[in-house]
Amino acid sequence: MPMLFMSGAAITFGLNIAGQQEEERLKTDLKLIGRAISLPISDALLNNDLATVQANLDSVFNIGRVYGASVYDVNGQQVAEAGVTETDLSDSWLARQTVQTGVSQDDYRQVEGREVFSQFLPIVDRGGRIIGLLQINRRASDFDERFEQLSQVAWISWFIFAVVTIAVLVFGHYRGVGRHVLYLRNIMQQVADGRRDVRVDTQGPSEIVAISQGLNEMLEAITRAEHEIRDRRQEEQRLNEALRAQEKMAAIGSVSSGVAHELGAPLTVIDNRAKKLLRHATADDDKRQLQAIRGQVHRLTRLVNQLLAFSRTPVSERQDVAIKTLIERAQTSISFELEHDDIHCVFDYSGNDTCRVDISRMELALVNVLRNAYQAAESEVCIVVSRTPRATEIMIMDDGEGLTERAQTHATSPFYSSKTTGEGTGLGLTIVQHIMSDHEGELKLENRPEGGCCVILSLPHAAFRTGEPNDIE
User: Fold this and answer.
1) Which part of the chain is the Histidine kinase domain (predicted)?
2) Of 65, 75, 234, 303, which is the most exposed, with the fewest CB atoms less than 10 Å away?
3) pLDDT single digits (tens) 55-66
4) What does the DSSP assignment read for 251-273?
5) Residue 419 confidence (pLDDT) above 60
6) Rounded to an integer, what distance in angstroms lies between the CA atom of residue 354 and that of residue 4?
7) Which of residues 148, 183, 218 is at a domain's end?
């Protein structure tokens, strides 16, 4: 009953809307008819051809939907007529408004004792001047009859719908839905008891199928949410472990800084004493032992410098420096460490790009990468500077054996080294990564197709500008 009541109310509302639309359509028909004949009537009036005016009115009247049509001059005096019309519109307010404003008017009126709907349209010449008035009448009962036809169709349709609905509810739908609803209720009870693996068989009427599909989607969403929660917990655990590792590295860096400062002075004293003794030594064995002492001191000194670099604070002051000058300084610094000069370095760059960086730290990064390249190379180290849409890259390549899979994964981990024991501290690439991160850049490691390793130091374009290179001391 509520459904039938609501559908009846909807039909009533719809009929009101449809009636208004139908009335507007009928009014529009009159306006279109009037516009269709206004131009030929206008030309006929200008030529004082009343026969043509009368012919146009008769043609409109013969359409059958027009009750009367007439033409008036600007003073409201009738010029020609067909059907039921008014002979004088001089006292009509609507007629005066149409002539004065040039805008069509319409209203329900009494003409010869009958109620009609009148459409007033101005007649204008081709220059836009109003030279007369056209009145087209239609019986008001035409509107009521059309609305009555719509009402009959609508209420007959509603009655048929009501009969069919009651028949379906009484004889079919109730029995067909009941068992499916009970089945859905049992599934929901299982879900409430904690079972998330149950799913509903999508069968039965379309409504039940839609509900079953919605329930299955809800259960799938719950399962995905539980998996996401589990994954999020695992990610939080991983982040916590990473945070603990960072805290551990921060503590190591703090301790390393203190230890390095404490070892620096004694190592300098030992090296100076060994150097002094070496000048006065005469026996070959004594010289060999003293050289070994100095060699170990130099290795420890390099470790101390690496520890100090590892514990340095982030970038604090940046200066402009030419890339070419920066790379050449790093080459000069690494040349003092080379034990063999049979490794050929290729660097051919004539660009004038200038970067704004912490010069000492960026030079340290280049020195660490070059040191690894020289130690891994068989015969050649190549330095290339290139530009990409987002960054400028300094690529340092060697022709050695390349990186193992484990080395590619852990190369930047602190204290990890693929060299033999005693040859590396495992801090070089860690320091490079920190320096590049402090400059909003990136360190990338990859093996070359032709063999060897390629280390890429990528700095964003925001750190670069094009201009004359600035040399530094």
Assistant:
1) 258-463
2) 234
3) 877 777 666 566
4) HHHHHHHHHHHHHHHHHHHHHHH
5) no
6) 82
7) 148
Asked if 88 and 75 touch (Cβ cutoff 8 Å), the reply is: no
Where among 148, 173, 200 does a domain terminate?
Answer: 148
Q: Give the model's pLDDT for residue 308.
A: 59
Q: How high is the pLDDT of residue 468?
A: 44
In whole angstroms, give the CA distance from residue 287 to residue 295.
12
> Does 70 reside within a domain?
yes
Helix (H, G, I), strand (E, B) or coil at 392: strand
Does residue 105 contact residue 94 with C-beta atoms inside 8 Å? yes
Rounded to an integer, the average pLDDT of 168-195 is 73
What mean pLDDT is reported for the chain?
76
The answer to whether residues 454 and 448 touch, using CB atoms and an 8 Å cutoff, is yes
Q: Which of 96, 59, 101, 98 is nearest to 80 (CA)?
A: 59
CB atoms within 10 A of CB 247: 10
3-46 residue pLDDT tens? 777 777 777 777 677 667 766 777 777 777 777 777 787 878 88
Q: Do residues 131 and 45 make contact, with C-beta atoms less than 8 angstroms apart?
A: yes
Task: Return the pLDDT at 465.
Answer: 45
Buried b (16+ CB within 10 A) or exposed e, 340-377: eeebebeeeeeeebbbebbbebbbbbbbbbbbbbbbbb
Burial of 300 (0-12, 13-18, 19+ CB in 10 A): middle
Report the 10 Å Cβ neighbour count for 223: 12
Provide the CATH number for the domain around residue 81.
Answer: 3.30.450.20
How many domains does the chain fold into?
2
8 Å CB contact between 241 and 233 = no
Residue 62 identity: N
